[in-house]
Specification:
elongated; 3 helices; mainly alpha
Amino acid sequence: MSSDRPASLVTRWLSVIAGVAALVGVVLGLGGGVRAAGPSAVSNALGAAVTVQTDLRSR
């Protein structure tokens, strides 16, 4: 059982990091104007977060 705990902890941290990255991307997109930051920057940040979380759940 002890081997499950570190894996869960790593999964949780990576999920938090992905969430923060998505939030930062949205804030930058809204703060600098979507035209200035580019909608692709926000889209990439959100896409990366979803990809990481999906990958972690599949393991």
